[in-house]
Amino acid sequence: MKRQGILGLLVIMAIAIIAGCSSSGSNDGKLVIGIDDKFAPMGFRDDNNEIVGFDIDYAKAAAEKMGKEVTFLPIDWSAKESELNSGRIDMIWNGYTITDERKEKVLFTKPYLENSQVVVVLADSALSTLKDLAGKEVGLQSLSSAADALDANPIKAELKGVSEFTDNVLALTDLKSGRLDGVVIDEVVARYYISKEPETYKLMDESLAPEQYGIGIKKGNEDLLTELQKALDALSSDGTAAEISTKWFGENKVLN
């Protein structure tokens, strides 16, 4: 084969490899969704190690509307935007809070669920207000909206210290063992764990900040965003979203 022909073949092969390695979610009939698999009840592993949760069921229903296959990929939540922008995942979908800072990095769907950042303490704790945390040690998930909410509150300067964890389960474990006085955490997650162990945990009377969940998509992929939002709107219209919400929360909490 002539040199020019070899070079041409190599160029074609390189293009094919690059195309094959890129995340084409909206084009190849498959969606890879990045999740935190310890974020109950939104997305977590059950007793059989199966990934379940509200967001899991919601994403499966949306993918069905879109005519796509869906795969859930547990990721390092502190690197979620990097995972999305690298093309390793097509969406961030697991209790992903909409913030102005994140809007600079990703595209968001319309909000689909209300949430707030709260503080969980031990059931027998005398702590009830944010001021009571002065001089105390609190924990939270690193690079989460819990950290943002705490940073924005004056009580942060009065704390003894803040310990960061890779997931909420580890933070709650340290609270249970007495190494922490409180854990800043998403309300939906807090209520799930309190329902499992009401004799162990409770919520403080005050919350830190209200927020909303959305689904994150790589900037520049407006077509996928439009397709997904259309599917979500259809799930609200036909009652599927309400059914999924009732299954996990006992009521319809999905925003329309």
From TrEMBL:
MF-aspect GO terms: ligand-gated monoatomic ion channel activity
A cellular component annotation (GO) from this entry: membrane
Family annotation (Gene3D superfamilies): Periplasmic binding protein-like II (3.40.190.10)
Highest taxon above the source species: Bacteria
Ranges of residues in domain Ionotropic glutamate receptor C-terminal: 30-251
InterPro entries: Iontro_rcpt_C, Solute-binding_3/MltF_N
Domain (Solute-binding protein family 3/N-terminal) ranges: 30-252
Alphabetical UniProt keywords: Signal
PANTHER family, A to Z: ABC TRANSPORTER EXTRACELLULAR-BINDING PROTEIN YCKB-RELATED, MEMBRANE-BOUND LYTIC MUREIN TRANSGLYCOSYLASE F
Protein name: Amino acid ABC transporter substrate-binding protein
Organism: Paenibacillus borealis
